């Protein structure tokens, strides 16, 4: 049998036993809190996987390096809130604590928080990069601090990363609107300097081209801020346009929320007059008066996987995970174009 490429983690045991990582941690540290049947299941998984506690992690804990930093683009976006929750639950299972900050997509803020976290002596940092270059993160790693890229594929093999295929996500949304009969689609998008925005646009354009449509003619891109006000700004611009598209794809659910609110105030029916699709499928998407069709990202899993990579330590081989998004169709896009 070929040697395992990476150390069995507490998450592997949890998956094998069908319990949370917190339960596995309790079996290891506070067995009295776990029912006998669950404890036996976990112990069987530990034996099957020959799991051995991460001694270096425990030593680091003894050395009190038990804090990890995370820098996301905007913690007020429910997407990042859910990702952060996934990170926190995974870290807590190993008695680590989490410090979180928002870069607001500003490289200077990202750099400042990196410095602050380093001064705090964090074990490592998980970062949604604000730009394409990660040279500054490689320098942090050179100083012995773990680095995991969050919601961003890694441009170098040596740095672990967790991302979602946003090109596929943009294509799924656009293909769905084409299937509903829409031939002219607005895309309320962020600036292309944000990788997620550029990739979703690329996916939308590929779907149009694959359908034999001219992306330049069929897609009306409007650049907006990545929040509900951005959705309002984008819709106001579209409502004033002569040849109004019959469908709107929004780069995330916050933009879609603002778009829906503005369309409704303008007396425009969703989906009868304008179909609407969001991205992230955050909790509120299904709860809206007009439930929102959205491209679901595995938010909690994305965070937990990044934390798992962090806890394996800087000596472990780098891992690159790209999750696939899925389209969740709801009322906001399900009547055929006029
Ligand atoms: O930050 C912009 C978007 O990128 C978020 O809404 C989420 O979709 C992330 O992937």
From TrEMBL:
Keywords for the protein's UniProt record, in alphabetical order: DNA-binding, Transcription, Transcription regulation
InterPro entries named among the record's database cross-references: HTH_LacI (IPR000843), Lambda_DNA-bd_dom_sf (IPR010982), Peripla_BP/Lac1_sug-bd_dom (IPR001761), Peripla_BP_I (IPR028082)
Pfam family name, one: Peripla_BP_1
Keyword Hydrolase part of the UniProt annotation: no
Manganese is among the record's keywords: no
All residue ranges annotated as the HTH lacI-type domain in the record: 8-62
Protein name: LacI family transcriptional regulator
Species this protein is from: Isoptericola halotolerans
């Amino acid at each position: 049998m070929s040697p395992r490429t990476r150390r069995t983690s507490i998450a592997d045991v949890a998956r094998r036993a069908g319990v949370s990582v917190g339960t596995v941690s309790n079996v290891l540290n506070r067995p009295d809190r776990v029912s006998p049947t669950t404890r036996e299941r976990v112990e069987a998984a530990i034996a099957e996987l020959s799991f051995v506690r991460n001694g270096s992690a425990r030593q680091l804990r003894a050395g009190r390096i038990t804090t990890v930093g995370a820098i996301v683009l905007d913690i007020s976006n429910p997407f990042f809130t859910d990702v952060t929750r996934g990170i926190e639950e995974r870290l807590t299972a190993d008695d680590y604590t989490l410090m979180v900050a928002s870069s607001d997509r500003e490289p200077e803020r990202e750099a400042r928080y990196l410095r602050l976290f380093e001064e705090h002596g964090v074990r490592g940092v998980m970062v949604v990069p604000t730009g394409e270059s990660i040279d500054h993160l490689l320098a942090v790693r050179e100083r012995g601090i773990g680095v995991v890229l969050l919601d961003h594929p890694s441009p170098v093999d040596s740095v672990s990363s967790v991302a979602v295929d946003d090109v596929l996500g943009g294509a799924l949304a656009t293909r769905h609107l084409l299937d509903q009969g829409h031939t002219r689609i607005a895309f309320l998008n962020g600036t292309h300097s944000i990788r997620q925005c550029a990739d979703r646009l690329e996916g939308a354009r590929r779907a149009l081209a694959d359908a034999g449509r001219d992306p330049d003619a069929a897609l009306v891109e409007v650049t907006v801020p990545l929040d509900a006000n951005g959705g309002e700004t984008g819709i106001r611009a579209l409502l004033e346009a002569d040849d109004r598209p019959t469908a709107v794809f929004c780069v995330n659910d916050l933009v879609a929320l603002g778009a829906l609110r503005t369309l409704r105030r303008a007396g425009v029916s969703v989906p009868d007059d304008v179909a609407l699709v969001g991205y992230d499928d955050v909790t509120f998407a299904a709860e809206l008066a007009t439930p929102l069709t959205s491209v679901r990202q595995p938010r909690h899993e994305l965070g937990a996987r990044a934390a798992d990579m962090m806890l394996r330590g800087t000596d472990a081989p780098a891992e690159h995970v790209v999750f696939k998004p899925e389209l969740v169709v709801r009322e906001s896009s399900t009547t055929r174009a006029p």
